[in-house]
Fold Rrf2 family transcriptional regulator.
Amino acid sequence: MQLNITTDYAIRIILALANRDGEVVSSKDISMTMKIPQKYVLKITRSLVAAELIERRSGVYGGFLLAKKPEEISLLEIVKVMEPTMYVNRCLEEDNYCSRDAVDNCSIRKFYINFQNIIEEKFSEITIKTLIDNK
């Protein structure tokens, strides 16, 4: 499993905003601080605004700020916004697709479920505040 670069960028964007402690930050500033191309900042912030993780402010002094406290935003929330799927195997998707029709009695799938739960638990334990505090 490898996260998309846009997911990494989304985490960096939220970190940049958290480090500014409620201040409105321009897309240009985020781009320069986090070394993300500005076109990606603008694209990714649309998704983060729609997910209500950040807010957009318009106008001359416009930009972005967190919509929640850093301790209320987990990495799992960000990943789920940015990744089309984060399941370790196709059989864990909603449709339970299995090419051998063995979803109910597959030992490999049981392993995947346990592994998936561990991954999601770890991602949900880590908040933006945790990342800031562990500099």
Observations:
- The two ends are 25 Å apart (CA to CA).
- The chain has one domain: 5-134.
